[in-house]
Write a structure and sequence with these properties.
With about 220 residues, the protein is of the alpha/beta class. The protein is built from seven helices and seven strands, in the order ββαββαβαβαβααα. Strands 1, 2, 3, 4, 5, 6 and 7 form a seven-stranded mixed beta sheet that branches. α2 crosses α3 and α5 packs across α7. The C terminus is likely disordered.
Length: about 220
Amino acid sequence: MQINLAQRELTLKLVYYGPALSGKTTNLRALHALAPPAGVGRLMNLETRDDRTLFFDLLPMFVRTGSGLKVKLKLYTVPGQVIHESTRRVVLQQADGVVFVADSQVAETEANQEAFAGLRRNMKAVELPKALPLVVQFNKRDLPDIRSDRELARFARRSGTRVYPAVAVRGVGVRETLEGLLGQVFDDLVERHDLANILKVDGPRFLQQVFAGWGPAANIGVLP
């Protein structure tokens, strides 16, 4: 979290992490399409020839709270390829929350596990707390041979992590994923930095302000 009192601006950094081709960039593109044009900046990304993000994507979003403080949300993705491990660590630095985007296909189980282990390893390397706000999105729920809803619910109960099913290419579940993470980030910053007093707003009202004017959400459920 960065606060610029002179400019009355609060910046939060959220990182989308996961294996290659799980849909991290697709999430940001969908969010960019759902958000009102006045509330988002340009979606910047750098891709290789095979359409994999090489460094990171950045989608800045803006909202002004009841206290007049401008909140800037910086959404990043990390490269999925293992060869860019050092870049992942750089992007993770000073993150306020993480969305882990998993591929729902059974065949991608090992890739999901390796990427999640890498996330924990890199969080430790850049000295992020183990209790950093984190949600898991299981993307590509429209494909055959995927993990069942029952399996996802079991994972959510076992891990104690909020799980969001999604079809990011259709914008399904992407807003819910971001909203779930932001709720956790708000609660975390309230506890550690008295953020509610700074913003003069509570969590539900903050989320309402962030998502005011958005296109209709395409929700397929949340697994507690």
